[in-house]
Structure formats: C-alpha cells, structure tokens
Amino acid sequence: MDSNILLEELQSIFRDILDQPDLVLTRGSNANNVEDWDSLAHINLVTAIEKRYKIKFALGELQELKDVGDMIDLIQVKLAAK
Amino acid sequence: MIYMNLDHLAIDEILLKRRSLRRQLSAEEGLQPVRIAVLGGSTTNEIVDLLELFLLASGFQPAFHQSEYGRFYEDAVLDPSDLIAFAPDIVYIHTSFLNVQSVPPVHCSEADFQGYVEAELGRYKQIWQSVEEHVPAQIIQNNFELPPFAFLGNLDAVSSGGASRFFLALNAEFARAAATDPRLTLQDVHRLSAQIGLAQWFDWDRYFGYKILTTSEGSVLLARSLASIVRAIYGKSRKVLVLDLDNTLWGGVIGDDGVDNIQIGRETPVAEAYTAFQEYCLSLRNRGVLLAVCSKNNEDVAKQGFEHPDSVLKLEHISCFKANWEPKHENILAIAKELNLGVDSFVFVDDNPAERSIVESQIGGIAVPDVGNEVTRYAAIIEAGRYFEPVSMSEEDLARAALYQNNAARASSEAKFANYGEYLDSLEMSAEIERFKPLYLERIAQLTNKSNQFNLTTRRYTLAEMEAISRDAQYIGLYGKLSDRFGDNGLISIVLGRREGDLLHIDLWLMSCRVLKRDMELAMLDVLVSEAREIGIRTLQGQYLPTKKNGMVEDHYEKLGFDLVSLDPESKISVWTLDVSGYIPRTQHIKILEPVHG
Q: Which positions ≥6 away from A29 have C-beta within 8 Å?
C-alpha cells in the first residue's frame, strides 16, 4: 500500500482515538510532539491499527518504533508478508 | 437529557471513538456523581476508561481512584489511607488467576486441597473486611476465569492438584461470601469469560506488553457488566419489559391469520422458538421484572393470543395491556403512567424496526435493543444489554410482580365507592411504622437510592451510612410498611429526622409510588410527631429540594399543614416548619400497628 495513503488512513485513526479532528499527522509525529498520545492512547492506537489492517505486531516490534514513519514502514512490511 | 445508546455501537466503534463519546456524554447535565476506587491486580486503566464511558451513558458522573499497579491487597489491608482519603462509594477489586498465591501444587493431596482454597479465601476476606471497616462503600469483587492452561488436561478439573478444580472451588467460596454479605457484590467474570471463550479473553501480547490481561473485547465486556452492577446498586436497573405481539411473542399476525393459526407451541420449529422466547419472558417476570404489552391490534383479538392453549404467557402475567391503533410511544407513556414507573426503567422489544425507531426517538431514556426479527436471537440480545441486573434478590423483588397486579385490582375496585375515604376504608389498611431496624437497613438504603418522585430531598445513602445513622441517637429514622386486603406492600416509606436542640430537621422523606394517595404520609407524620415529642422536640423543619422528577411533592408540607418559612425564588427550594405542641393525630384510614418489642 502506498505510504501516503497509509499516512492519511493513520491520520484518520489518530484523529478518532485522540479526539482531535484537525490533527495533522506526519512521518515525524511521535508521542512527544502529538498532544495526548499517552500510554493508554498508544495501546488504543495499536489495537485499532491491528484491527484495521488485520495484522498483529509482535512483542518487541513496537518498542523499536520512533515515530509514525517507522510505524508506516512496519505496517507495509506486515501487509506485504500477508 | 440526550441518551446516547452505546448498545447500538459496535465494539470497534466504541474503542475508536471513545474520547469523543466521553466528551459528548460528559457535557450532559444532571449526571449523578459516583466515586469508584479500583484496586487491581493488573493494569486497570483500560477497564476504568471504558467503565467511565458506560457509566456516563447511564447518567453517572464517575470519579476514579486506582491502586498502584498490582497493590490491591496492600492498598486495602496494609495501607488503606489513600482509599480512605478518596472516600469511595464503590470499591472494585479486580483480580485474576495471576494474583492468586496459594494454587495447590500438582501433587496436592485430596486432604490438603481445601486448605489451599481456605488460604486464598482468607486473603480476600481480609481485603473485604478491611474495606468494610475503613470506608462506607459497596464492594464489587470479581470471581475468577478458568486458568488459560490446563496442565493436567481433562484431569485438571478433577485432580486435587488441578488448577481448574481449584478456581471452581474458590469461585464457589466467593459466591457463598457474597450471598451472606450485603456489602459484597460479586462480578461473575467466570461467566463473562466463558461467554466469549478463553481464547478470546486472554491476550498475552497485551499482557506482556502492557500488563493488561484481557483482549479489548474482554475489557469491554468487563466494563459493561460493571456498569450494570453500578446501575443496580443505585437502583437504576430497568424494571419493565414492554412487548409487541405479532412476530414478537408469537409467529404470524393474529388479526389476519386468526388465533388458531399463529405460531406457538411445540408443533413446528418456529412455534417452538416463540415458545422458548415466551418462557424467557416468563422467567424474567418470575424474578420481578414486569411485563407489559404494546401492540397494534384490536384488544379483544390480541388477548385471544394469550388464551391459546399453548401460550406460556397468560394474561395474568401481563401487568399492563395496551392493544389499539394509537402510536406505540403514546401507549408506552400511558403504560408508564398506569404502572407509576418512569420510562427510563422500560425496555421495549418489537420485531418491527420502524416501531423501534419511533419509540426510541420519541421517548427519552427507554431502552430499545436492536433485536432484529429472528425470534431465536431475541433473548440473547436482551440478555446482552444487561438491563435488569438485580443487586440482590429480596423477597420484595419476587413479590413485586404480584403486587403490581394487586394494584390493578385496586384501581378497578376504586370506581364503586361513594367517596375516596370510603374506598380507603375498604382497603383495610394497616401500617407498621417504627424506628429503623437492622433487618430492614438494606431495603432502606435501597429505597433512598431508587425513589425519585415521592422524595422531598432526593438524598442518597449507602447501607453503611444508614447503619451509622441507625445507631446515632441524634437521628429519628422511621420506616413504614403498609398492608391491605390485597396484600403486603412491603417497606414503602422512610422519614429521617436529625435533631438540633429542640428542632428536628427532616433530612429525608420518601415513599414508593405504589402507595400514592393512601394517606400513608399522614400516618408517617403521626408517628414522627409522637417520637419527636418523646425526645423533647418542639418544631419539625422540612425542606423541599426540587428535581426534574419530584414535582409531585412540591406541596407535600403544605398539605400536611406545615408553615412556609422561606422560598428561594431562584432554586425554588422551600423550607417549612410545624409546631408539634398542639398536634393531633390525623390518620383515619390506616390502622397503625402497635410496635412489637423484644
């Protein structure tokens, strides 16, 4: 899947989960520069992404992600492997 | 109040939109505050987050305190200071198989097995006892799901060293404890987990990643079930099931097909399915849920359906019957009026989506589950809504259905008398009005939490608070029970006076609406005055605090002959006094029974 489309779809999920309808997500977005991206929100985001793309992140994979860009790359790898 | 029905949202939708849902629901006015402490054995943030949502949707404004991670025992028993400072109304102890310390080893002998059960039970008893001693709160304790792995295979449920057998035994002990302690309410996680299956319940990625043991679906189930328990504790469980007839209680359209051709009985699979649904409704009725009928039919034709020899439901099971061609929402409002219950205690079941939609849009607060039109699914869908959760089964609950039927009989006999007093005399009423007794404290606390209409101050009390009050000499707490020739109405009125010098503040005056217009308030006043005089009270002072629901008692004190002291033009709060020196007892139509001592 094209990474720009993926970014747009993730933006929509982030907007819902964080209840920020105007949130603009970039590859550089991370828990430090996005408001209210706390640990519980993080769990919710991961769960929503897993459900949306019918993928499962392995334990440990998530710890290595620095930002949304890394997340997009990982999702692409998972989708390609399906 | 806008009721947002979370039941209509898919779980994924709730999970995705929970923050905006919470924002919208929090904006509602008139939410009832409730303080909930969660003592957890794993990370409880997700459950709390979801519980908050479901409670907001039920009209509560919850505030939460969570124990430090895994410190449910320490925070309850060793250092309860945070718990005490938080002053919870409810303490939820959320633990799983992982928090159990004394699981028997695989070589455990039959003789030692019970010792392991007792040891673990003892630890929990310490927790419950400590909470009960330190805070006047209701405790909700979950029992255990089966452990995820059965190391002994099928023998795990058999052997004294089997974890499955151990947890089932522990659950049985928890049930025994909850059955005998009115302040301990059990959450049946064993059943919840079975409902979606252990494979969908445990999530090891989430456990090792975030220390959340359950899947998000599991957390939603837990939170929904908790919300229904909280509703039950505060008397907000629903009480009435309103049923459509054609293709809801039987197959076919009785007006077109005729009573002989409707599908009910054992002859065909479809008929059997409708019979099973009728049996489900009857079971609800037998545990105190009232059944009402709301159908577009001619009344005489509709009633024939219940005379069908195979109909499980008979007319006598239906507390209110409306079959006509008026819009259903109007009929439901009429049913509410006749039964003297709020529509927010109603659940409406109809196979027709158009009827469901109009009823839901026209009547705020009614629950209209999307039951579809397959009779085989109705019961499970109603069940999933957890509308009728009882917190305990009192004899009151079991007798209630019969009571409301008696009320209907009273209403029909009312017409034949020359005047109202004559009618009241014909009821042959007798009242037991006495100081609070331990036996009744549970019912008394329950009534303070569920009476909204005939309630002057709408103050809510927990069982623990009522226990304290009943021991405090500064209070005169009176309960009233009323019987008549149709039956025992049970404990239906409470008046609570607080002494300040020679003045008695009436903090609480409430009555169940099923005994409206029976002069019971006069009887209560007579006894209150006599008790007050005995301790040297000169003046009774009552207060009316208006709410959306208690308009019917606006002139309560005026009718009883109190003098208006003040009326706040903004809040409409009024204060009234009565000089008791010249008071003459007024009860004419109720015989007040002499207190039985010893």
A: A14, A67, A68
- Taking the C-alpha atoms of residue B295 and residue B34, their distance in angstroms, rounded to an integer, is 38
Instruction: State residue B2's pLDDT score.
Output: 44
Percent of chain B with pLDDT over 90: 73
pTM for the structure as a whole: 0.70
Partners of residue B45 in chain A, C-beta under 8 Å: 39-40
Which of A18, A37, A47, A56 should we substitute to test contact with B (largest number of B Cβ atoms within 10 Å)?
A47
What is the pLDDT confidence band of residue B598, given thresholds at 50, 70 and 90?
very low
Mean pLDDT for B340-351 is 94
Domains and CATH numbers, chain A: 3-81 (1.10.1200.10)
Alpha helix stretches (DSSP H) within B388-489: 395-414, 420-426, 441-450, 463-471
Q: Calculate how close chain B gets to A28, using CA atoms only, in Å.
A: 23
Give the span between the Cα atoms of B232 and B236, in whole angstroms.
5
CA gap A72, A9 in Å, rounded? 10
Q: Do A19 and B206 touch (CB under 8 A)?
A: no
The residue count of chain B comes to: 598
Residue B396 reports pLDDT greater than 90: no
> Which has the closest alpha carbon to B96: B72, B77, B132?
B72
C-beta atoms of A19 and B23 within 8 A: yes
B23 contacts on A by Cβ (under 8 Å):
19
Domains defined along chain B, listed by start = 6-233 (3.40.50.1110), 240-384 (3.40.50.1000), 424-592 (3.40.630.30)
Per-residue model confidence as pLDDT tens digits over B9-49: 888 899 999 999 999 999 988 899 999 999 999 889 999 99
pLDDT at residue B406 is higher than 80: no
Give chain B positions within 8 Å (CB) of A51. 12
